[in-house]
Amino acid sequence: MEAEAKLVVKRLGLRAVEGRLPPHAPGAVYSGEAHGLAVDLVTYGKCRTTGVDNVGTAGAVLVTAAAAQALEPDLFISAGTAGGFARRGGAVGDVYLCAAFANHDRRIAIPGFDKYGVGRVDTGGAAGVEAVGEAARALGLKQGVVTTGNSLDCLERDMEMIEANGADVKDMEAAAVAWTASWFGVPVLGVKAVTDIVDGDKPSHDEFLENLGAACKALEVAVPRVLEHLAGSESLRLALLEPRGAETGSS
């Protein structure tokens, strides 16, 4: 969302660049450099019908595919807000660094399709998840699994799937980004700031609106720190990028 991106764009000194995405693709691109890394921040754009930010998996797939082809990134970072869970130790304002992604609202009770529905992606496999855990501890962030669905609220059946996914935060895009990126052989990290407590006593939509500004400020601080750590940690880069090199034959 633009609100989630605005402060990060300013903090990193990125500039809007026209024509980076294919014609008719939604979204905007802000480009620059941070800690020696070339950075392109891409938003999901606005809905042409309602004028609100594109949220959910459809826009995430479309924009991620367009960005993968046009920008040819080495790594995607799905940065944004999310719901946390009190039973998993989450609190409003927490920031999670994530290398594992799954869906909780794609229920297909047919052998093979059940696993496809969950769509689990573990960036870099066990080594990648472990390396991201080390990075999270070094940065003072929490590590977790992102579970994704297309609704802001959460039904009882969704909660059962969320539990099965071992999820620590709930959003509306990250698993779609991870699934799409995997088609292009690009690894994904998640940086998620908690706006609401899904299993708390307040409605998610009220708590989201109440805490969105604070969560965006948390992202403003966290995203540059993650980039700095990524630039300086050869072990993290190897854990995330080496599997891609093995698959594609590139160095």
Overview of the structural elements:
- This protein has eight helices and nine strands.
- The C terminus is likely disordered.
- With 251 residues, it is an alpha/beta fold.
- Strands 4-8-7-5-9 form a five-stranded mixed β-barrel. The chain has a three-stranded antiparallel beta sheet with strand order 1-2-3, with helices on both faces.
- Helix 1 packs parallel to helix 7.
- It is 44% helix and 22% strand.
- The protein starts with a helix and ends with a helix.
- The protein has a domain of 174 residues: Nucleoside phosphorylase domain (Rossmann fold, 3-Layer(aba) Sandwich).
Keywords:
alpha/beta; Rossmann fold; 3-stranded antiparallel beta sheet
Task: Reconstruct the topology from this structure.
Layout: H1 2-12, E1 15-16, E2 29-34, E3 37-42, H2 57-71, E4 76-84, E5 95-103, H3 113-118, E6 121-122, H4 125-139, E7 142-148, H5 156-164, E8 169-171, H6 174-183, E9 188-197, H7 204-232, H8 234-248
Parallel strand pairs: 4-9, 5-7, 7-8
Antiparallel strand pairs: 1-2, 2-3, 4-8, 5-6, 5-9
Helix pairs in contact: 1-7, 2-6, 4-8
